[in-house]
Structure formats: structure tokens, C-alpha cells
Amino acid sequence: MSEAQTVRLSYEDGARAVELARESVESYVLHGQREQPGSMRDAFYNRTGAFVRLTSTRGRGRVRGCAGSYKSKDQLGHAIVDAAIKAASGDSCGSEIEPAELQNLNISVCIVSNQILTNDPLNDLVLGKHGVAVDKGGNHGWLYPTIPIENNWSKEKYLTRVCRKAKLSPLAWQDEDTMVTLIEGQVFRERPDGGSVQELKV
User: Fold this and answer.
1) How many Å apart are CA 1 and CA 57, to the nearest integer?
2) Exposed/middle/buried for residue 178 (C-beta within 10 Å: 0-12, 13-18, 19+)
3) What digits encode the pLDDT tens for the residues 161-178?
4) What's the distance, CA 142 to chain centroid?
5) Burial class (CB in 10 A: 0-12, 13-18, 19+), 125
6) What is the per-residue pLDDT across 143-156, written as a single tens digit (0 to 9) for each?
7) Is the pTM of this model over 0.85?
8) 81, 34 in Cβ contact below 8 A?
């Protein structure tokens, strides 16, 4: 087992993480600039990974961007800014976020608290709790922890989809030379109705 520095955010810190992600997306999309975290909350000086996920509030709520890293050695505040910018860029889901989309985005942030290298992913994986990353032969892919719950996927389907994202065979997660990492963390997101930020509980 390899662990990130264990970080546990208060609700207030989590709400600020989402706010910082939105500020970073808006600064990048509207001005082409990198938002600076400024005077950060104490928790944001911890060195751990973060993911930012952008979904449209229109139609079926398709994913417009998702980026980040569970291995980040940056301070959390900077990791959030970097993930938000990459999620908003064309590097994420193929098309850059346009200014007109900003008011129709829902922003979610996952703060990494732990990484577990597993030899038995089917047994160790907890849907809704774990993000999953796979590495094999230079190929790498990961998926956000809330995705299998949103899509009603089984553990097998979740692992298969991660392998496909990594451009591996669907059953590569069963191979001995495939490294499967379970990513634990807290997920905070804007409420769909535009209300306050919520922390998703597993």
C-alpha cells in the first residue's frame, strides 16, 4: 500500500475547494489566465492529489471535462487550480469550455486522501468510494469515483471501462502485470439546483 499524505477537509474547506475550481475555470475560459490560489486555507498547503470534473447541467448532463492526478506532489491549492484548467481545456474531453457554457456547468472536486495498490480489485473495490487507476506497459487511465454510481455500473464494468480508457484490453485489470490503484478521497460538488456545495457521502 502506498499512501498520500492523509488529508481530511472540513465542509468549509471543501466548499472553498469547489469555489477555487470554479474561479480557475472561469479565469482560464474568460481571460486565458491561471488563477492563483491567493491566501490559502491551511488544508490547501497539504501535498496531495485532486481531480476536477465538469458536467453540463443541460440535457443528459454529459461530462465536459475531467482532469487531475492522485500522485501530485504540489500543494493542494495548486493541484486544484491545475486540474480545473486542464478539465476546461480541449485536452480533457476533446473540446474546450466556451464562455457561454460557464453558467451551465456543475463543478465537482475530489480531494485524494489515500491510494491503495490492490492485487484483488474485484474484492477490494467499493463502488462510490473508490476511483480507479490502471497502469500497464506505459498505458495509464483512471476514472472518477462517482461514475459507476451515476451509470449503475457493476464492479466488473467499472474496471473494464478504466482499462478501455487506458487503451488496454477490457480484461487487463485481471492480468498480473497490470497495476490497479484504488483512490480514496472526499468529493464535494455544486448542488444541481444551484444551491450550496454538498459533500457526497459513501
Assistant:
1) 38
2) buried
3) 999 999 999 999 999 999
4) 9
5) buried
6) 999 999 999 999 99
7) yes
8) yes
